């Protein structure tokens, strides 16, 4: 009971600090970890060791992966490669299916690029196409926002899912495969919501001409930096399945090396350098594209490291042993990470913080929740991702980016973004539960 009280107290400190006092999540996660350690009666030496080991272990696993993923996204955005991909998707699907086009475009772009940035980039196109097609701007915005949200919380190399997978020790290739499948299926009811509910909202549209680079990169170059790393990671995952038994030949060793997430993402960074017109100071300098990616990645890496400290503190305190073994083997234990992530997302706003914090709390409890198999580790990452989307509202920066860019008021924002993320998160969790019932 002492450990559970300590955990509740530390979460209260975390949420209060972020929401009320606007303290950076890194410092609040660190303070929450220390609060838990003191409340749980840990010694000073135990807490210091948990801080050092927890921070180092998790960043050793995924720090560079997050940095490389952010770098790929930044170069895609700045070079115009992301816009090339968006325009091609729109051409393939057609302006008559603008809702589907926006949803799929948002889904693809949010894998390498942060959802906020992708929304800002796509908003002018969304306005223009919805105006030309004569459809509701609110409906197409809902479709775009749900597409952005789906891959943002479920599909690596987006930093949040990568961090959760690293903390829980889940196979990244499995997370990509199942994340793609479940998030796409969960978008089906979101598409219905955008067409049937959000479409009825009236939002005025002022058409703007989207900014375009003078010379855009070729489509195939733009896709390389996204698809090649994903394929390398997936090939490695397939080769490592016991039933495959590929042997130990030269090509197998090469693919196992290249498919290691940190190497695969590094390959993606190298391929993304094909996109700029010139490889000069504007790309590589501290104030250029690479410098900007470092500034964007640094807070995420620090938050992830602080989450590692929190998780190690929980592990070293003996919390897992104090949790009843009644969860063990119970398939409904998968709802625990979902509900915890949903509570954290709703109370403090950030999906990344919800993903990292929930994964850190659940890591020492996996066996007691019946989630310690390889397959259930993957499903747990996705359940946390689903929970971290429920529900985006006024304490989420993405909510304000959406309403300010589109001219929606707060009520309309709740109807489009908050309700939409609720539909996605609940749909995804139900799919995850059905899959675990069948396959676990």
TrEMBL record:
GO terms for molecular function: gluconate transmembrane transporter activity. The keyword Zinc-finger does not apply. Keywords: Membrane, Transmembrane, Transmembrane helix. InterPro entries: Glcn_transporter. Pfam families: GntP_permease. GO terms for cellular component: plasma membrane. This is GntP family permease. The lineage of its organism: Bacteria, Pseudomonadati, Bacteroidota, Cytophagia, Cytophagales.
